[in-house]
Design brief:
Helix content: 25-40%
Oligomer: single chain
Radius of gyration: 18 Å
Strand content: 15-25%
Number of domains: 1
Number of strands: 8
Number of helices: 10
CATH class: Alpha Beta
CATH architecture: 3-Layer(aba) Sandwich
Structural class: alpha/beta
Distance between the termini: 19 Å
Order of helices and strands: HHEHEHEEHEEHHEHHHE
């Protein structure tokens, strides 16, 4: 195992609005670039698993193998265990991606979704993920890139939100535009055989748009993002309320569309 784990500031936090949104994620969407490499009997680690919806969804692709979700926040692991419903080859453990509590070569795959954008040292995290994967196994990471986010119709409040979010993440020592940096972080981690791909996430269905807009409206006023923006004096309470109102108005526009790019790195461990 590596040295003592670093302590990062999680921009989203674990407000109910955040956990609810993250619980909507599926393995089929978030890990589509990895699933073709999975085989029955593999042992897979999901680092930064959050509420575990992706983690649980990966089980069927490695069954009768094992899937282990790791997260640094014990509270969200309770949610993950509840959602998992007692699947026998699925478990969740508390731990840091910088110091995973496993021996070398303990897994066939180590995967992380939307984790690197919250870390001060993503290359160190990827190096640690590579340590616990056997030669011939895979390290997989997928992250979004906030600069690629496009909303239609264009809304000043949402543009203000993106700038505010990006600056809060920067103050936290991380990078909201992490997607584009996945290949270089993997290279710094010593992962040489890296396949890079991209996918576009799009919200167009009215129910999906409404969920997305209302979720961000609540998060920008009530989650850790709001607390951090206020603490860093990047916004006043009335600014956050104005941004939230803009999200809600956009989400009810019949023409509303939102899209952004994910970048995926899939490295074969040598």
């Amino acid at each position: 195992m590596s040295d003592s784990p670093r302590k990062d500031t999680y921009t989203h936090g674990h407000h109910a609005s955040v956990v609810a949104q993250h619980s909507r994620r599926t393995a089929e969407e978030a890990a589509a670039f990895l699933i073709p490499r999975l085989r029955p009997g593999m042992r897979l680690l999901d680092a930064g698993c959050g509420p575990g919806s992706i983690t649980a969804g990966l089980v069927k692709y490695v069954d009768p193998g094992e899937v282990v979700g790791v997260d640094a926040e014990p509270g969200v692991l309770g949610t993950a265990r509840e959602l998992a419903g007692g699947v026998p080859n699925l478990s969740f453990e508390e731990g840091s991606v910088y110091a995973l509590p496993y021996e070398d070569d303990a897994f066939d795959v180590a995967y992380a979704h939307q984790l690197m954008q919250h870390l001060a040292d993503p290359a160190a995290a990827l190096r640690e993920m590579g340590r616990v994967v056997r030669p011939g196994g895979f390290v997989a990471a997928r992250d979004s890139d906030y600069q690629t986010m496009i909303c239609h119709p264009r809304t000043e409040a949402i543009e203000e939100w993106r700038a505010l979010y990006t600056e809060v993440v920067r103050r936290n020592g991380a990078d909201a535009n992490a997607g584009r940096r996945i290949p270089s972080w993997m290279a710094r981690a010593g992962l040489e055989q890296v396949e890079v791909s991209t996918t576009v996430a799009m919200m167009r269905d009215p129910a999906e748009v409404l969920n997305w807009g209302d979720s961000w409206a609540e998060r920008v006023t009530s989650s850790a993002l709001a607390e951090q923006a206020l603490a860093y004096k990047l916004a006043a309470r009335e600014d956050l309320e104005r941004i939230a109102a803009g999200w809600r108005a956009w989400a009810r526009d019949p023409e509303a569309l939102f899209l952004f790019v994910h970048v995926e790195g899939l490295a074969t461990v040598s």
